[in-house]
Amino acid sequence: MVRPPTRVTNRIKDLRTERAVTQAELAARLGVTRQTVIAIEQGRYSPTLELAFQIAHVFGARLDDVFGYLQEER
């Protein structure tokens, strides 16, 4: 079964690049695997609300400056 991509978008890669933080460093600070960071960055996995807040905190950003949500067109 193929899982559809999440509609949650993020700027994690941009923020990491701006601050010269590797995926491995971010993962270590969050207590998750590098694979989890990759999956979130690529939109294959939506983090829990708690993890999303932790990610925003690491970058000193507001949650909605890191994450967005694509509304379904009707």
UniProtKB/TrEMBL annotation:
Q: Which Pfam families match?
A: HTH_3
- Keyword DNA-binding (UniProt): yes
SUPFAM superfamilies xrefs: lambda repressor-like DNA-binding domains
Q: Where does the source fall among the domains of life?
A: Bacteria
- Which Gene Ontology molecular function entries are recorded, alphabetically? DNA binding
Say if the entry is tagged with keyword Lyase. Answer: no
HTH cro/C1-type domain boundaries: 12-66
Q: Which UniProt keywords apply?
A: DNA-binding
Q: Which CDD domains match?
A: HTH_XRE (cd00093)
Instruction: Extract the PANTHER family matched here.
Output: DNA-BIDING PHAGE PROTEIN (PTHR46558:SF4), TRACRIPTIONAL REGULATORY PROTEIN-RELATED-RELATED (PTHR46558)
In Swiss-Prot or TrEMBL terms, this protein is called: Helix-turn-helix transcriptional regulator
Q: What is the lineage of its organism?
A: Bacteria, Bacillati, Actinomycetota, Actinomycetes, Micrococcales
